[in-house]
Write a structure and sequence with these properties.
It is built from five helices and three strands; from the N terminus they run βββααααα. With 88 residues, the protein is α+β, with helices and mostly antiparallel strands. A three-stranded antiparallel sheet has the order 1-2-3, with no helix packed on it.
Length: 88
């Protein structure tokens, strides 16, 4: 497996892989949800969600599952292991 991090951009075999914080922000905006609405859906505080979205902290597995369910995307997509958001 060949991975590189150039100027904050994760690459896997030359393909850009979204960071968790980028995926959270993108999914939230596509859903047209506020940070507060997303935090409530995940059962966390708005400030904790902001830490995740700003890349200052990483969510627990249970919060990741709640966020993936809320956004209706796969966990692999949310954590940058896939570019396919579909849940299988």
């Amino acid at each position: 497996m060949i991975t590189h991090n150039l100027l904050g951009v994760n690459l896997f075999l030359g393909v850009h892989i979204m960071n968790l914080n980028e995926a959270l922000k993108r999914c939230r905006k596509l859903r047209k949800a506020t940070q507060k609405q997303t935090a409530i859906a995940a059962g966390i505080t708005e400030s904790m969600y902001q830490f995740y979205e700003y890349g200052k902290s990483e969510p627990t597995a249970s919060v990741l599952i709640a966020l993936a369910d809320y956004f209706d995307v796969s966990l692999d997509y949310l954590v940058g292991r896939s570019d396919d958001p579909a849940r299988h």
